[in-house]
Specification:
Layout (H helix, E strand, L loop, with lengths): L14 H8 L1 E14 L7 E15 H5 L5 E11 L1
Antiparallel strand pairs: 1-2, 2-3
């Protein structure tokens, strides 16, 4: 089976598995929070906030021979109210 079948973008035609086997793992996660007042209170309103967390993790044991060492580079984009 495809070990990346649970990911939104899949295995990229095998490229993602090849990268992972070589020690490079690319990832991204999305989180959203939606809240609303649909009844009662002073006013009916809603708010939304979300973030995209992304990055790449390098297994330096596979890439450079440094046992039990990883380097992770990440970024985050937050948006909403």
């Amino acid at each position: 089976t495809d070990r990346f079948s649970d990911r939104l973008s899949g295995d990229w035609g095998g490229a993602r598995a090849e990268l992972a086997d070589a020690g490079v793992d690319v990832f991204a996660y999305y989180n959203a929070i939606v809240a609303g007042n649909v009844s009662g209170g002073v006013s009916k309103d809603s708010d939304y906030a979300g973030d995209i967390f992304y990055g790449t993790q390098f297994d330096l044991a596979k890439l450079a021979g440094w046992d039990a060492t990883t380097l992770t580079i990440t970024g985050i984009n937050r948006h909403g109210d």
